[in-house]
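Quick illustration, no need to memorize.
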Amino acid sequence: MPSLPEGIVAGHAARLLARAATPERFDARLFARLLGARIAAGNIEALGLNSVALARLYGHWFPNAAAPRVTQPAPVPAHRLDEVDDVRVLLLEHRSRQTEEEIWLADILAHACLGQNHLWEDLGLADRAQLSELLKRHFAPLAAKNTGGMRWKKFFYKQLCEREGLNLCRAPSCAVCAEHPVCFGPE
């Protein structure tokens, strides 16, 4: 997802929070931010949720707002279907609370890994710290494994490669990233 001006994303998130049942809760703020970024981009389908999941998310966190209509999530290129599924399964295996929110987040994160930017940017979060907090809260066993502070997308793919017994592995978009030297420094 191209980077959107912070004020636009924050504005959409604030409008959703105004309709939240419990706007002070971490997850209400988190989902407002994730949804606000996709609404601002005009691409709610890229969130990776089907209409049932999106309606349940809205019903739970934003009962005073109408859920956008989505017939199906944005299509995933055929050659990347397994990748999205693998990331999703990795996350689901490391859920902290076994909640429905974590299923939604696994879908959202797996689809965002297809982006070309840092994962926190492709999610529409303000910074990497917000992504780290999300992962520590909802996928704590996995987050605890990232002892070297590795970038999250790279870390997910490294975990998947280690499962397959591969020693050298990188996220698909890392080679074209302007910050490649930063991410692939000593870890």
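The chain has two domains: 1-75, 79-187.
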